Amino acid sequence: MTDSNSISLNQVSKWYPSHKAVSDVDLFVPEGCLMALVGHNGAGKTTLMKLILGLIRPTAGNLTILGKDPCDRDAFNRREGIGFLPENVSFEPNMTGRELIRFYARLKHESDKRCFELMETVGLGAAIDRRLKTYSKGMKQRLGLAQALLGKPRVLLLDEPTSGLDPAARHQFYDIIRDLRREGVTILLCSHVLTELEAQTDAVTVMNSGRVVASGSLEQLRERAGLPLNIRITVKEGMADKIASPLRKHQAQITRLNGRHLELECPPQAKMLLLRHLGELGSIVEDIELSNSSLDQLYAVFSTRKEA
Amino acid sequence: MNAIWTIAGKEFKDALRNRWILAATALLALLALSLAFVGTAPVGSVRASMMQVTVISLASLSVFLVPLIALMLSYDTIVGDIERGSMLLLMTYPVSRWQLIFGKFLGHSFILSLATIVGYGSAGVLIAASAESTSAQDWAAFAGLIGSTVLLGSAFISLGYLLSVVVKERATAIGLAVAVWLFFVLLYDMAVLGILVVDQGETLKADLVNLLLLFNPADSFRLLNLTGFDSTAALSGMSSIAGRAILPPWFALAALNAWIMIPFTISGFLFSRREL
């Protein structure tokens, strides 16, 4: 509950008569941090975002955003510092991009000039005078992002920001995120497409059926998941069998083997020992590829576990 | 305050863009003109000004049409935005729920007022141009009609808002809107009439009947237009009721205003507590 957390949730629960959307969630997002919130559909991610935004009240527990309760009386005065991109939003189809962004800009006391700049930033500068019904899903998503960036937000909540974006637009999106992080904006992001995020996330929280099942940096999660490391070795023709047997002694498990290639898995803690051994083999080994378990794999491990 | 105007402006521009205003204005103008030029034809030798006859027939028809237009304009304003997801987004902006609903209400009543004033007003000007003479009293009655139509429309917009915050789905809202329209425009009067027939004037006196009419915005509107002005009262055949009535016109006026404010306040209150 210190001031360095832009968002903090303390044992927050949200129960509806029909189901428990979120139960006993602890979540702390330090200022300037990019946290990825991952989980199945219906894991409670969107509910969590609504709670943080003060759109719904928690059944139990307390939470703050920028140090204040989002359901406060004058909470809406502080909303200028918060940007939100909802998962599904359908804008008035007969409005043009310019009309829509100006409407939102006025509500956030943002100048017209700045909102046209933002449209350029998200790559909609050329389409600004087109009606929204002619926009593709990706364009609508980018328009949603542009409105979230209005008013220089200090906290951004992005719900599935990359859905519908083609690879080029996705990279543009990551560039925008990188710039925002440089400015110290705190970002909480829900996403299904995880691997591309890895390079940028500071922390990951995995949710499953309304509970946080794992939270921490990628390294911490990897360690806790105990997923084996994948190593792919290329050796001189016909030498694969020869080196396979000594490798087994180093806790390695051979998963694939043919004349020149070996694929094996080993526990993370056995990595260095194994590499040293491979080094001793000299010129027999031509290439080594290491791959850490990806966010996707981690997600698969944690989301099937009930409790961390 | 700024946010309220921004919201109201958006509602207005939306209605302008999707030709809502154009359609409603054209409909009201057409109605007024056809009543004026077709409806007054059989007046014959009765000495009545064209304007006043038009006011009476328009008032009787406005009671059916304007509530329908108002309800169609307003029934999905909250629930529709929630379903589309734009409400969720808007509520993360520095806009309070009261500001939002009030801004929407301002926008919607302005849309309906504009359609009424332009639609009926243009018809009024045409009538005045083609009639032999139009007295100040005629104009007053016509202005009264326009003003009370705006109030009637606003009252039903307000009722539409109430529907819109109470229901969970748009489909329910449209069903309820039709039910509300039927109830206030047709069933309520039939019920009152039925009671009167059964009662044979034993317990229900004229003033009580008048009071009952105030509990319906459509009847308050009728009362205001058909009895509010002496000249129209005589023409409409309401003078028998109005003559015995103890209620002065401002009762009907106050009732109409209450029908605007009370449902709106309740909807604002419910909306500010609703979870999105």
Architecture overview:
The complex is a heterodimer of chains A (308) and B (276). The two termini of chain A are 22 Å apart. Helices cover 32% and strands 28% of the residues of chain A. Chain A has 308 residues and is α/β, with parallel strands linked by helices. Chain A folds into two domains: 219 residues, P-loop containing nucleotide triphosphate hydrolases (Rossmann fold); 65 residues, Alpha-Beta Plaits. In chain A, α3 packs across α4, α4 crosses α5 and α7 packs across α10. Chain B has 276 residues and is mainly α. Chain B has one domain. Chain B has 13 helices and no strands. In chain B, α4 crosses α7 and α6 runs antiparallel to α7. Chain B is globular and about 60 Å long. The relative contact order of chain B is 0.14. Chains A and B meet through α2 and α3 of A and α1 and α5 of B.
Class per helix and strand makeup of chain B: mainly alpha
Spatial separation of the terminal alpha carbons of chain B = 23 Å
- End-to-end C-alpha gap of chain A: 22 Å
> By CATH's scheme, which homologous superfamily of the largest domain in chain A applies?
P-loop containing nucleotide triphosphate hydrolases
The radius of gyration of chain B is 20 Å
Major sheet characteristics of chain A: 6 strands, mixed
Tell me how many strands of chain A there are.
13
| Poorly predicted ranges of chain B | none
Tell me the strand order in the biggest sheet of chain A: 5-6-7-3-8-9
The helix/strand order of chain B is HHHHHHHHHHHHH
CATH top level label of the largest domain in chain A: Alpha Beta
* CATH-defined architecture of the largest domain in chain A: 3-Layer(aba) Sandwich
Number of contiguous helices of chain A: 10
Structural class computed from helices and strand pairing of chain A: alpha/beta
The SSE string of chain A, one letter per element, is EEEHEHEHHHEHEEEHEHEEHEH
Name the average pLDDT of chain A: 84
Task: Tell how many strands the DSSP assignment of chain B holds.
Answer: 0
Which fold does the CATH topology of the largest domain in chain A refer to? Rossmann fold
Give me the oligomer status.
heterodimer
The low-confidence runs of chain A, each spanning 5 or more residues with pLDDT under 50, are none
